[in-house]
Please model this.
Amino acid sequence: MKNILHILLFFAINIIYISVNAQDPPYPTATIISEDVEYCGSEEAEIEIQFTGTTPSNFALSINGDISFWEVDITKLTSELLYSFTLPFPQTSEIAITRVYDNNYQYDVNNPMGSGVENSSNSSMIVQIDEMPSPNAGTYDAICGYELTLDGTVTDQTHTIYWNDLTGVGDYSDVNSPTSKFTADQEGDVTFILTEINGMCTAKDEVTVTFLGAPTAALNSSGEFKFCSSDSDPDFISMDIAFTGNAPFNYKINEGDYTSDGATDNPSIEVFASGEYSITEVTDVNGCYAPAEDITGTQIVTDLKPVAYAGEDQIICGKEFTLEATPSSNTSGEWTSKSVGINYADATNANTTVTSDDYQLVTLTWTETSDEMNCVSTGDDVQIRFAEPPVLELSKTEDEICDDGSSFSYLTLNVTNGNEPFSVFYNDESKDYSESDLTLGVTPLKLYPEFNSTESPQSITRYNFTSITGAYGCTTTYSDLTYTVKVDEKPEVSVVNYIQDIPCNPIIELEASTSFGTGYWSFESDGTFDDENNPYTKFTATTSKDYILIWNDTNGECTTSSEVAFSVLPFPDPVFAGIDSIIYGLDKIQLYAEPLNIGKGTWSLLEGYATIENTFSNSSVVSGMDPGVYKFLWSTDVMGGGCTVKDTVVITIKELFQTGGFSPNGDAVNEYFEIPGSVHLTNIHFVVFDKLGKLKYEEKGAGSDHEIKWDGVGIDGEALPAGVYYYVFEADELSKPVKKYLVLKR
Model:
């Protein structure tokens, strides 16, 4: 029994020992040792893996995060546990091994993610797949000239891009731009190749362009060509023209069309007038135009036929005129006419005197002949109207009429000679008059002179007839053709000649006039006359009201009356326009007249120029005021009755700002920059800047007793250097900030 226990104890101890000293097999690993690769388009890539542990059986492969499970082909596994296989890749991919299975950690098909071990190697492999680009070199027609702006397109502007051509006969403005400008050295075909490179992918496109070039033309002048266009034969000039380019050429000389089959041409061109001939347009057989700068040469053609100028048509009041032709140089001339009764002082003189036997319209012709080639001009005509001056006669020289309010003086005008219609001009020494559309012969004229009371009992009006003008502007003036009209005064019966202004007190001084007969005053009530039979008596009103007083003048049974109307009104009160004052820096103020208890007031401006916004308000605002002295009148009355009481107030506007300089140098002269009157403003704000706009000084004042008086010391307590500074000044009373400059001297 004891031996059995010993045996059992031995086995137990050994089991415990084996259990204590036992260990799990090591985890397998898999490391991708292949380098990253790059391909153009879809390619197959070889993946090489280094395993550790016992012979692997499976592994989990991650491609861009997608997991697949692979069984190791033992036949491809080397003794060093290196394993290689190939996979196709249509796109850029990242490959990694996430789990490994071997003999100790086997693959469970029912639980692949729960079997094996997680791969501890963080290795991976990148397969870069580049996309093949697709450049397009463009499509072009044949090009006239030698310059072409390419019109290529590429898949991606960030790719490597460049142009080249197979001929090498030109230059690119930017060989790496799809839209580069290309300048060819010669005519012919150029094949352009546009290359685009994306990583491992390279693509090309090509296009062939034909440069057709451009023609040139030169007109070689043989000197000035002279001809006379007044002869009967047409004149031709032969041109000498040289071309370069591809014949035949179509070209224009001025407005004419021509064709040349070769490099030179000698067209014969008919000329009609002086001018400058040049080639204006050239195209070659390809339809290519010559640039303007490549068309040269001019041919001067001079027509020796003089251009006669006989002068402007004229109307002459009379029968003599000095002609005004303009003679050409190196010519001789002559006047001729088909009109009768024409006489020249010298028919070969361009500015001779011509006379006519009659008043008539004549046509004169001036013809010139050049000294060179005896070339005769086409005659130029001028029309001269010799017009007859008119004559005015009056049927009488004086008249006398009575002033009854509708009287007139009758005068007959007699027009002889001249061309109708006529206009007559006259005046009465104070006003001008005229009568128009008059004809030859007599015309009745009514004149209405006014009675002049200063010449009572008779006034005289003199009508001075100064001129008469005919149909062609011919005028005859007069200095002594006068018609005198005497106007007698019509006696008036019992009229009031003078009435004083509407009174301000109850005693009215009356004035009336009496031509003959007797007169007396009458009225309704509320007053008394000192003497009711005296035209110059006084009337005392007893109340303030509207009155009508009547002056009656009687001659037998006839009575003529005239009324005097007025109102008796109280004085306006109180009348005070305000206190004279001096104001700085404002363009708008407010007037302060004392309000009226009786009556109404009106403001007006006696001195200065400004706008009173409400002339009827005692506290009106006045705007638009420049510095200066303004005198305002406060005029008052009672309901417009003429009883006026006036008062004035003077407002002086002074400049608030100085734009000059100051010199704070201790000499007690001009030591401060001051703004006079700033002490009267509220909430002032004064800032100073240098030329760069940097703040150098600032001062504020909330009350109305703060004065700007700056000594040139900046905000940092240091004296500012000499120079030009800019300042801004604001205050509540200013309509806008003031921005000016100042000069600081040391």
